[in-house]
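User: Run a structure prediction on this.
Assistant: Running it now.
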Amino acid sequence: MKVILVATDFSKEAENAVEYAGAAAKVVGAKVVLFHLYKLSVHALNSRLGPSTFDDLYNASQRKLEDRAKALAEKYEIKTVADWHKDDFYTELKLSLAHFQADILVLGMPEKSLEQDMLGNTTTAVINRLKVPVLAIPLEVQFEGIKTILFAADVLRGVHLQVLEKVKEVAADFGAKQVEIFHVSQKVKELQGLKEETEKAYGEDGSDIQYFYKNVSSNAVIREIQLELKEIQADMLIMVPNKYGFWSSLIHRSKTRIMALNSEVPLLSLPL
């Protein structure tokens, strides 16, 4: 992992994610790109301010981001880059990710609310729209090392070997000691073929990381994942988001999105 891109709007959840990214970058030896999209306030847009005034606002915002990047670099003794943008959030974020060849995008998760549970938020929208690894950091969660990882796999979709390799890379980068591959299914027999596949993928890893395989027969997938997170005291949850079409999305809610909104540990979404 060479480049961590973290987006901030200077809110408390975003700044918490910035601190998490800085501490993590020091451990994995990565550079942090601090991304910020500036939006003019409604009052400024509706006012009759001259071009020079708008330039002053832009410059002040850029200086604020540069100062934040410098402070982060000094605190964690890492390399940082201030990446300031305006206009469309998703367009500029995609450009930034591509330009810096970021390995992972870190975003903060705000406090849970009924509105977010129903409609989601910027972080869950990014997970759904951008094909990039996204690490969602719950508010108040601080980086204290990643020793235990829970990888919750969707049995019905199968676990591609490329995803398993990504999980192994993440575990190695963070120096994890234990990875549990966790499956929840209504039918235990569905797990047999997948068990052989995952055991084959991890059987000759050659590292000091311990891999465990566990399955649970249950109808309550989210509840079982939450219980397992507490049981093994996981420091990170990894999931692969499911992609639904327009009509299906009106009925289904991604389990990754639900866990992102409710998880008490950082959630890493790995796209296929």
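The chain is about 45% helix and 20% strand.
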